[in-house]
Design goal:
365 residues; alpha+beta; Alpha-Beta Plaits; 2 domains; five-stranded mixed sheet; two-stranded antiparallel sheet; 7 strands; 9% strand; diguanylate cyclase activity
Length: 365
């Protein structure tokens, strides 16, 4: 989960609160209209409006999923004012001396807010405040202590709940952010070879998937290369020296291609370079430059004496057309096999690539 998905979760929570709030108001208004007092149904205009507004609000919310977090406050103040209006009208209709009616009405409004708006302090306040003020006004301060206690206790509780919720949300956001950063770091590390810091095969697949530009014929090239007699090098110099040789060869390859080209440790002593949007003459020059650079490292390798007394590379090159990755790698591997059979420290091209007359090796632009 990232911050975007967490924000979507928060929006979903606001939407569910709005749906619950509208449903409870609608149900309460319908119940009020069906309730009788002294065998009389006391239906008021505001309670009818609440029912209509609730039903239309439910339909609107179910059909619309975007930008609903601000709508909740609007509905809250509107419903709060309508309930305050209803309490006023009904209070004058039934009996001004019935003080229990005011407290019960206030409890009803708080009940709706407590269930539906516990996670939104602003909406909670907007909903209960009109009714609370109206009850205080109608009571003429006769039961002010009871009414204030009825108001203050849930307000204090919801204030503390709101503060804890904000801190919890802030902590969750930081946690999600940190987890996302750590996941990105882990993902990056999982795509890199820990010894050479080049891409591994997973990193190659990831980078290859990101190449979406249209390909021209023979505009991409696969260079598959292998260190000559590396098993003998490891057997005689030891694996620690072998690792050092791999690191130096990997650095030489990486330093002689462009930053946008993909360099991969393809196997134990096997490397791959994907050159993007170049001509075959340029691919040939890069291959020669890499080969000379590795030889110029002068890494002693007396068990490579049939080719050189230093570490050398054999290389196969194939074009990558029509995004046929498997065919390109197969052709490059076959070319590498021929280079090995032709004496090593050699460069061979796949049959579909014309060999260009060698040109002096130039530095990268």
């Amino acid at each position: 989960m990232n911050l975007h998905s967490y924000d979507e979760l928060v929006k979903s929570r606001h939407r569910l609160s709005l749906l619950l709030f509208l449903f409870l108001n609608t149900a309460s208004s319908i119940f009020t209209m069906l309730t009788t007092v002294d065998n009389r149904k006391l239906i008021t205009i505001p309670v009818v409006i609440i029912a209509v507004l609730g039903v239309t609000g439910l339909l609107f919310t179910l059909l619309r999923t975007q930008k609903l977090h601000k709508v909740l406050n609007t509905y809250s103040i509107a419903m709060g004012i309508l309930w305050a209006w209803h309490i006023t009208l009904k209070y004058h209709q039934i009996a001004p001396d019935d003080k229990n009616f005011l407290l019960l009405s206030l409890f009803s409004v708080f009940f709706i807010s407590a269930i539906a708006l516990s996670g939104n302090f602003i909406a909670f306040t907007l909903h209960v405040l009109p009714a609370a003020l109206m009850v205080i006004y109608l009571d003429q301060f006769h039961n002010i202590i009871r009414i204030l206690f009825t108001i203050a206790l849930p307000m204090a509780g919801f204030s503390l709940h709101h503060l804890m919720q904000k801190r919890s949300d802030a902590f969750t956001r930081r946690l999600v952010d940190n987890l996302y950063i750590e996941r990105e770091k882990f993902s990056d590390l999982s795509m890199l070879d820990p010894l050479t810091n080049l891409y591994n095969r997973r990193g190659l697949e990831n980078r290859w998937a990101s190449i979406t530009a249209p390909m021209r014929p023979q505009s991409h090239f696969v260079l598959l290369m292998d260190i000559d007699h590396f098993k003998a090098y490891n057997d005689n110099y030891g694996h620690t020296m072998g690792d050092q040789a791999l690191v130096r060869v990997a650095a030489a390859i990486r330093d002689n291609v462009r930053s946008r080209d993909i360099v991969v440790r393809y196997g134990g002593e096997e490397f791959m370079v994907l050159l993007t949007h170049v001509e075959h003459a340029y691919a040939q020059k890069v291959a020669q430059r890499i080969q000379q650079e590795v030889l110029g490292l002068e890494i002693p390798h007396v068990f490579n004496e049939d080719v050189s007394t230093h570490v050398t590379l054999s290389m196969g090159i194939a074009s990558l057309t029509d995004r046929d990755w498997v065919a390109a790698v197969t052709h490059a591997d076959n070319a590498l096999y021929r280079a090995k059979n032709n004496g090593r420290n050699a460069i061979e091209f796949a049959q579909e690539i014309p060999v260009v007359q060698e040109q002096p090796v130039t530095s990268l632009a």
